[in-house]
Amino acid sequence: MGLGISILIGLKGATSLIFFTYLRNLGFTWLSLPFLYASPAYILVATASHPSIILPLLVGKGTDGVFPVWSLMMYGPYLYFVRIFSGLRRLRSVEAPYTEILQGFCVGGWPYSHRTLPPVSADMCIPTWDTRAPQPVDIETAVNWACRKRAQKFPIFIHCAYGHGRSVAVMCALLVALGSAEDWKGAETLIKEKMPCIRLNFLHRQALEGWSKHRLSTTKRKGDISGLSSVLS
Question: Fewer beta carbons within 10 angstroms: which end of the chain, N or C?
Fold first, then answer.
């Protein structure tokens, strides 16, 4: 099981603390303070995103996808680092902003502008750390919410940072719930035909296995897939 984000952000926290100590010892007290400010934020995130803990509520992201002011102030160094890093990576990417898997079903990365966003009518956020997976109960919540929105006749866009892992896991569950795939493995194969770059890791697969065993969502007819609405992120 890879530590992923925990190692990266933990190293940033340790590096920030080292820079703070180094600059302070050189007498650059004011210059060292930003590193002192950033270090605890990185260390807290590294701890809360560890596979044995996984506490995305730490940063306070709401179901509308918005971070409260206190979170921006306390975890600003981490949040802005992730936003800038993701934006630069998307600029270098040759991938399409999103891919339509079936009619009305899109998967993609974080929509950095309106032109990279398919037409949607509402949104719902399932806070999940990068490289981690939504819990089975969160997958069920997302699937049920998407199914309830079907009558509004709008497509569904499921996204995470890059559209490779977390969003694909939720889309796999949704395709199973709608009867477009027999199981999540079949759904993964279907998605991979359109998006060869997807990567479900151990945690994603484990979450989908857990959801499959205990899911409550009703399976729809295989051909009944039109008119889905809103966005999951």
Answer: N
Type and span of the H or E element at 193: helix 184-194
Which two tokens mark 205? 């697969």
Largest Cα–Cα distance of the chain, in whole Å? 70
HSE-CB for 34 with a 13 A CA cutoff: 5
- Give per-residue burial for 151-167: e unless 16+ CB within 10 Å, then b: eeebbbbbbbbbbbbbb
Query: How does pLDDT run across 123-135, given as a tens digit for each residue?
Result: 889 999 998 999 9
Tokens of 196: 């060869």
Output the six-digit token pair for 14: 């340790």
What's the token pair of residue 41?
């934020």
Please state, in angstroms and rounded to a whole number, the distance separating the CA atoms of residues 215 and 31. 53
CA distances from 85 to 67, 95, 110, 203 (A): 18, 16, 12, 23
* pLDDT, tens only, 175-191: 999 899 999 999 999 99
Q: Which pTM does this prediction carry?
A: 0.86
pLDDT at residue 96 greater than cutoff 50? yes
